[in-house]
Each structure stands twice: as C-alpha cells, then as structure tokens.
Amino acid sequence: MRESTRGWSEQQWEDYFARQDESFFLALRSRTSREQPTNDVQPSPETAGTMDDLLATASADTLLEEEDALIRELYAGLGQMPAWRAVVEFCDRTMEFVAPICENVIGSPLESVTRILCRECFLVADYVLAGHELGYDEETLCGNIALCLRARRSLDRCIQCLDRFGPEYRDACLQLRLRGKIAGVFLERRVSDLRARVWWR
After folding, report:
1. Of 157, 193, 191, nearest to 177 (Cα)?
2. What tens digit of pLDDT does each residue of 64-93 get?
C-alpha cells in the first residue's frame, strides 16, 4: 500500500475500503507482493527489470508451482479458523438452495432477492478471506477486523433475503437461517479475538 497504515483504527480502514468502492480488493494484496508496470508507465529504478527478468528466466511450470505454493500458504490457516469453516458451510448450503430455483424465480419479485442473496453470500466468504490475506500485524490487523465486520453485515443481509422467500421455501430457509446465525456467532468471536491482539490502542 502506498500510504502508511500503521496504527490505523477499524474506522480508518473502513473509510479506506469505502473509498475503493468495487475495486478495493485490488488494494488488499500482501505487502510483499509487487506491482507489475503497465506498458504506458515507466517502472521505478528500484523495480526496473525485476519482473521482466523473472519472466524471462522462470519457466511456466516454475511460476505455476510458486503460485500454488502461495495459494497453499494463504489457505493453510483458514482450515483452522472456525469462522471460516462456518461461513463456507453457510455459503455452500445457500448455493445448493439457490441453484435449483434460479429459473423459477426469473421475472418474479424473488429474482432480485435471489441475486442479492447470491452476491452477499459470496461477499461473506470474500471478506473473511481478504482479511486473512491482509494480515495480522500492526499495519493490517484493524483492516482484517474491518473486513470481518463487513462479512458480518453481508451475512445479515443474506439472512434478511432468506426471510423474503415464501412458505414453500420455509423449511429450507429456516435451516439456512440457523446456519447463518451460527456463522454470525463465529464471526463475532473472531472479531473479539482479533481485537484482543490490538495492543497499541
């Protein structure tokens, strides 16, 4: 990131994400990642040639192996995170519910509800993953928390959408609401755990 985020509060991070709008995930790269220069921008002296040299000397297989290693490292800690497991379980079950009814709701008032449900469902998982990727140190921890809070709000919107489905979907929606509530409890615990690590306030 171009500006120092050391000591930023949760609200400062939220304001930052809000300014990014739809493209804010592009800013949530690891601080160790590098920006590849575009054709119309001259690279700085510090980074000039490094990406070209890498691409020139590394084989496609090597690059794929390095990418796989980064992905494995990113996901390594997620499997041990109760909030992540609960969120994924909710999202998977929600998509299983939505898939067979997509054609039936087209043109009905439930079409927009279903679209919002799918979008927010994906955002729940995306926010938790982005927070984990962002990190846990002084420069990023409150950003991680802010993203978990965004995940919680998206989860709430999912539950609100489920309340809009009619009696024919009542049983399925009740089960999903329960899974959503459970995921919400785990997200709240995760936020509390992360806040306990913020020693500089």
Report:
1. 157
2. 565 556 556 666 667 788 999 999 999 999
SS3 content of the chain, % helix, strand, coil (to 5): 75, 0, 25
pLDDT number for residue 41: 39
Is pLDDT above 80 for 147? Answer: yes
Tokens 């390095």 sit on residue: 66
3-state class (DSSP) for residue 46: coil
Q: Is 3.90.550 the CATH classification of the domain at 81-201?
A: no
Tally the residues of the chain.
201
Domain map of the chain by residue range?
49-80, 81-201
Taking the C-alpha atoms of residue 181 and residue 158, their distance in angstroms, rounded to an integer, is 10
What is the CA 184 to chain-centroid distance, rounded?
15
Identify whether the C-beta of residue 159 lies closer than 8 Å to the C-beta of residue 168. no
Nearest to 92 by CA among 124, 115, 68, 116: 124
Average pLDDT, the chain: 80
Encoded tokens for 41: 């921008």
Residue 60: pLDDT over 60: no
Structure tokens at 5: 């985020």
Q: Please give the DSSP secondary-structure letter assigned to residue 81.
A: -
Q: In Å, how far from its chain's centre is CA 122?
A: 8
Q: Can you give the three-state secondary structure of 147-199, one letter per residue? A: HHHHHHHHHHHHHHHHCCCCHHHHHHHHHHHHHHHHHHHHHHHHHHHHHCCCC
